[in-house]
Amino acid sequence: MLNKVAVTLLASGLLLAAGCSQKPTPTVNASMTQVMSPQAQTIWDITSRAFNAKGDGLDGSKLSDDDWKKLGKAGALMRDRARLLAKAKHVTAAGPHETILGAFASRPGFRKGTWDAASPKQVQALIDANPAHFAERARNLATVGDTLEKAARRKDVRILYQVSSGLDEDCDSCHQPFWGTDEPPPFPR
């Protein structure tokens, strides 16, 4: 009898601990500003330095072992965060105290024709209206990150070039339907 009670208590404790250890899904805004954007910039910075003399491909000899490690890490971080967002039951565009990119770039009502930045409420409505499409876009970005991580492990310059040259379009495929735009505001006068 004591063994059954002990096993039941142990199993209950493990289930409770597993449930308590689950972290909430990061917001889309935090994911973009803290993971996706910095990692994309790392990828573009490294690949920009590695272009061949013609500018139509990459020269692997211009990539150090450290560059490959950074590229692999960038791909893995993007993949892991995108997978987390794709699998989430519900994603939140931004937390109550988060400022989304571009939120202060325009002054609504200030002047007709000013750039209209999306608000967190607008972004959330777009995501909530089509969560399956958001998850699909996140899975696509996870695949991109995974491809990059594998290419970095193999030091595959051809695949690295394909990923880095298509990354802007991969990002835009989520920005357009959910952030409302990928275009920056006009330069301030």
Please state the overall shape, judged from the principal axes of the Cα atoms: elongated
Work out the number of β strands: 0
N-to-C SSE series?
HHHHHH
State the helix count: 6
The CATH topology of the domain at 27-91 and 119-179 is Four Helix Bundle (Hemerythrin (Met), subunit A)
Quick summary of this structure?
The chain is mainly α and 189 residues long.
Protein architecture, described:
The protein has helices spanning 2-21, 28-49, 65-87, 120-129, 131-154, 157-179. It has a domain at 27-91 and 119-179: Four Helix Bundle (Hemerythrin (Met), subunit A) (Up-down Bundle), CATH 1.20.120. Residues 5-20 and 109-113 have low confidence and may be disordered. The chain contains 6 helices and no strands. The chain is elongated and about 45 Å long. It is 65% helix and 0% strand.
Notable traits:
elongated; single chain; 65% helix; mainly alpha; Four Helix Bundle (Hemerythrin (Met), subunit A)
Please write out the topology:
Blueprint: H1 2-21, H2 28-49, H3 65-87, H4 120-129, H5 131-154, H6 157-179
Helix pairs in contact: 2-3, 2-6, 3-5, 5-6
